[in-house]
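Sample pair:
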Amino acid sequence: MQFTAMKAIPAVLFALCPVVVLAVPIPPEPPPLQNPKPPPAQVSSSEGMPPLPYPAVPQKRQEHKNPPQPPVLLTKIRTGDAEDWARTPHDLKKLLEWMSGEMGVNFSSNIKTWREVSTNPRENPVLYRSGYKPFKLSPEEITRMREYVRNGGTILFNALVGHPDFYQSAVAAAQEILPENPVYRLRLDHPMFRAYHEIKEVKYRERAIKDGVVKDNFPWFDGVDIDNRTAIIISRFDIAMGWEKNRHDSWGYEDEDARRLGANLVSYVTAMQEAGRSTGKSVELADGGGSKAGSLRVGWVAHAGPWKTRPAAMPMLLRKFNEVTGAPVSFDWREVSLSDASMFETPLLYLTGTTDFALGENERANLRQFLMKGGVLFAEAGDGRASFDTAFRAEMAKVLADHPLVPVPANSPLCHQPNEAGMVKVRPALSAQLDNRKTTAPELFTAEINGSTAIIYCPRDLSAGWEQAPAPYAIGYEPADSTALGVNILFHALVK
């Protein structure tokens, strides 16, 4: 399903200057307080969602068919406790009505149980679970939801009235659905906050401010990623009553911002529905040279943040490297922990991510030793995210304080050997940031130790290009130039 009315990526999405690094402040967790009460009960468990308005369709007199229903976008999850899930019965209806008038799009919603939803997200693209009571998914529900999100679906949890019991249950559910991926707070550079409206700050309801649960104006959403798509989204503070314009006291957002956030959620999800598809994920790769013995193997650095961004990207780049240079490679990338001695078994480490992260003291010490002994670290900012860029630069300043990252000059072999990549074509997201220019010199940084390259870093997205993946929010380079530049980086790392 395509969200045809979604705005083109606005220029304000890319307000960050390429040479300016901005940190995203995150407030501390508030102390436990007396929780707000849920809104008055309004519906029974058997009540359905009111139908959405649809355009009038002229009919012949003999016809008695109903006009076509707008496609279902949001499916509200019904549980056995109507006192929990049905306290805001008109939330989706009111949001979609507002979006119809504000954005000119028409979608509908329905209600199903976890068991009734299809694991094919084309039938129910977004599953919406709102409530204020603690809950726990059954093993069967966890299995089904894992299949659903891996097929491209999105789950949205909303803590009604901002109740921490539901929020904590939602975090636990997300961890059970995708245990291999971290739950993390979305920073302001996440595309969800720029998918339709530019949201830099929000207004919270008076109760949330009075009770001291918020001390700033930043929106609070947590997420779990699959590759570079946030597949599970958790609203820490209530958005449902803002959609309904319900004035009951709550820890939540004011009406206007709740609706703007809702529109952005819909825009982000619909834009990313095809992001899981890529040429790389459908290509069978055989190790170059026919054997792994003596082949180049890349260690992919695992860290505390979301790091497994595009699993098919590096194998696709290695295949191209093999084609260009003839060097034998292994497409079997290996996960490397910087706290494990196995990191020293590969000459090249690859590090990426989509948000901020921190290394432990032991990890920093091991990485420094790896680099001092001649190893090379190749890093890129997934989707060109500023929060990763800030964190990476800060970490490298601690790892190699006496060997800073410096810009790569235009005549560097990195830009010209073995591929000519002195100028590269940029993706629309980066073009908007560069005053709509279509090409630019590649932005690369290196750190040297005794005249040899130890770190090669690109603050722009490269891996979406290697994987040839749809990436509407990637601030980076087009596939052909990303691949050419990636091959140059691997070549330079090996012959340095």
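The chain has two domains: 25-53+67-272, 280-495.
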